[in-house]
Write a structure and sequence with these properties.
It is built from 4 helices and 9 strands. By secondary structure, the protein is an alpha+beta fold. The protein folds into 2 domains: about 30 residues, no CATH class; about 120 residues, Sandwich (Jelly Rolls), CATH 2.60.120.1140. Strands 6-5-8-3-2-1-9 form a 7-stranded mixed β-sheet. The protein has a two-stranded antiparallel sheet with strand order 4-7.
């Protein structure tokens, strides 16, 4: 009887955690591919998955083993604020560009895999774009450049 009760409790906890994405993180599963949109950055196109919810923000590109040459993840936040990113459980090196409400690049940071260092925006950001490390530098994208094709936040 105790064994059945324990099994039921564990099953209920598994369902609760699975709904919150905790199990996926614990077992090393990337989040399912999100809807994509094209973004224009300094005359170059990125195909960006749109992470718009807090859970999608939290999981980001964790546990992915690679992304395409011109693929990215766009983080859309509900309000303008100073932002930071880290690379916990992220297996590939990435660059992040923080953008203001008008889509202007505030700053770009390169990030190394499996680190917990915080990489922050140099001003209030409404968006962040993560892509392969060096993508922005190779295309001479810098602070002040504008990104077009950005969706508006839900709020």
């Amino acid at each position: 009887m105790l064994r059945n009760a324990l099994a039921s409790l564990l099953a209920a906890m598994s369902l609760a955690f699975a709904g919150s994405g905790v199990l996926a993180q614990e077992f090393g599963q990337p989040q399912p591919k999100l809807r994509t949109i094209p973004l224009q950055v300094g005359g170059h196109t990125l195909i960006a998955e749109v992470a718009a919810t807090p859970e999608q923000h939290m999981r980001g590109m964790m546990f992915r083993k690679s992304i395409g040459k011109n693929d990215a993840m766009l983080f859309v936040f509900d309000e303008l604020a100073y932002r930071s990113m880290w690379m916990k459980n992220t297996l590939i090196p990435l660059s992040v560009a923080f953008l203001d409400k008008d889509g202007r690049v505030l700053n770009i940071r390169d990030m190394q895999p499996q680190t917990v260092d915080y990489h922050g925006s140099e001003g209030p950001a409404l968006y962040a774009i993560e892509t392969n490390v060096g993508w922005f530098a190779e295309r001479k994208i810098k602070a002040g450049d504008r990104v077009t094709g950005l969706p508006r936040p839900s709020k």
